[in-house]
Amino acid sequence: MTNNSKDILKIENIEVMYDSVISALHDVSLSVPRGKIVALLGGNGAGKSTTLKAISTMLASERGKVTKGKIIYDGTSVTNQNPTEMVGLGMVQVLEGRRCFGHLTVEENIITGAYSRKLTNSEMKDELDKIYSYFNRLKDRRKSQAGFTSGGEQQMLAVARAMMAKPKMLLLDEPSMGLAPQLVSEIFKIVKDLNEKEGVSILLAEQNTNIALKNSDYGYIIETGNVKLHGTAEKLLNNDEVKELYLGISKQGRKNFRDALRDEVNHKKENKFSKTN
Amino acid sequence: MTELLFFVEVVVAGLLAGTMYSLVALGFVLIYKASSTFNFAQGAMVFFAVLAFVGFMELGLPFFLAFIVTILLMGLVGFCTERLVLKPLMNQSEDTLLMATIGLGFVLEGLAQAAWGVEVRRLDLGIGDFPIQWIIDTFGLFVSALDLTAGLVAASLILGLSILFKYTKMGLGLRAVADDPGAASSIGIPLNNIMLLVWTAAGVVALVAGMMWGARAGVQFALVDLALKALPVLIIGGFSSIPGAIVGGLIIGATEKVLEVYIGPYFGGAIEGWAPYVLAIFFLLYRPEGLFGEKIIRRV
Would you call B294 and A103 a contact, using CB atoms and an 8 Å cutoff? Predict the structure, then answer.
């Protein structure tokens, strides 16, 4: 494995157990090409977060362990490193649920992201200016306590903070969680921008299949700890199974939850009537 | 006029005695900030630190050298605590950590007594616990030199620590860890370094507090129970606030003295012992985060 290999991250057949008994991932393999955005899709409990944490070594803090397979990041085998060491190697995870430091100001939050780097005051200023050029909203709010900013701002802050570590690879865990659609597209636009201009490779775990695939190069769909499908984003967006199960579009056209529910209710009503009569 | 002067004297004595409580409370605040846990071992650390200090002096080390050696020793205690207690318990619940600090307290008490013996020792800082003549002459107040020194020492410690937390990189790291250790480690803040820093700082604060109390009451096992007096201070000031520890200490010091002198006789005296706890209960009812504690942030 050389550092110039095509893939910055390669996962081969990993299995993950929590507390040595609860198996969360059975057999997951994926790779992230250098400078690309890869989406990791699936429902609740599919194993998206677990996969990301296995890569960033945050698993250990939740008593989880990679029991089989291997993870190669940028030519290094990820085994017993701790998250601090991984950040040193240029891999940063943005945790699910934003996790900003609520009592610190927005700017202090961003500065903590550079903790692993030794920056002079003027270098720090340049870095901050650069970050603010991507996240205009945060500049206006830099003196506010992070805990009082909106959900969208906190998500931006979490990404901005991670970018301050100058990562080669970013792991994003559900950036769209709990946000209005407009904000979600704003955040994905910034993520795409960061990927193109800063050349950072991104592995993105999402439940919002549609927007994730539209902003990615490649996608993996996992279900109950196994990779079920994978392919280029375009291919997945046009795949019938993906359309039906993850995008809510059936062959007969769009089918959303409300329609499905209505069908079921009507169906039940009919049954009831037929019985009483 | 003498009535008023007497009142002022009581308040001043109370405030200064309060700074001694603040010193003990400060150690708690440091650890609470980093680990969100009440460190039951803080009293034992005070005892351990000052006993070691007196022990080194008895071995013939000069005052200053003994002070430095004890600080190094407290650094070692911090290091061992991080390695042997905190690290294995990382990511366990705060309650687990709380229980661990109780155990740590017993270990430190035992170690201190095993190493230095159990008899009460005298600590002479060269500052007497008697009124300063100059203040008597100028203001007509009786103010203990030891109280005044404790006040000044506490003030400079607070100032130093506040600057450390507010303006240094380590301080920023500590505040980040205090908010969310998981997120802090995800962006590369080394938790173990921060913990080591905090426990060492708490050890130094324990040493200073122990020296002040030891000079007044003798270096003895009873110092361990100082931890209990710090509890109402923390409830009033807020567990996570350094200024809170100070103000809490001052409030407790002043009220307990004033209550003792003016209301005590109606209760048969000695209300100093429980009055602070009554005050603390009122705070728990009406302002549970304390005067300066970090507000529980809730976005609506």
Answer: yes
* Cβ–Cβ gap B185/A82 under 8 Å: yes
CA angle, A251 as apex, A250 and A254 as ends, to 5°? 45
- Assign B241 to helix, strand or coil: coil
Least confident of A163-177, A204-218, B123-137, B188-202: B123-137
Asked if the model's pLDDT at residue A63 lies above 80, the reply is yes
Every domain of chain B and the residues it spans? 2-224
Nearest CA in chain A to B91: A61
- pTM of the predicted protein model: 0.80
Query: Does residue A90 form part of some domain?
Result: yes
User: pLDDT tens, B34-58?
Assistant: 877 888 899 899 999 999 999 999 8
Minimum Cα–Cα distance from A166: chain B residue: B187
Mark yes or no for CB contact A87/B187 under 8 Å. yes
**A192 band by pLDDT with thresholds 50, 70 and 90:** very high
Q: How far apart are CA B188 and CA A226, in angstroms?
A: 30
Contact A95 B186 (CB under 8 A): yes
Residue A254 has pLDDT above 60, yes or no: no
Identify the domain containing residue A241 by its residue range.
Answer: 7-264
| A122 against B139, higher pLDDT | A122
What is this model's ipTM? 0.82
User: Domain of A60: which CATH number?
Assistant: 3.40.50.300
Instruction: State how many domains chain A has.
Output: 1
Is A274 a domain residue? Answer: no
Q: Is residue A270 part of a domain?
A: no
Sign of the CA dihedral with A156 first, then A162, A165, and A171 last: negative
* A272 occurs within a structural domain: no
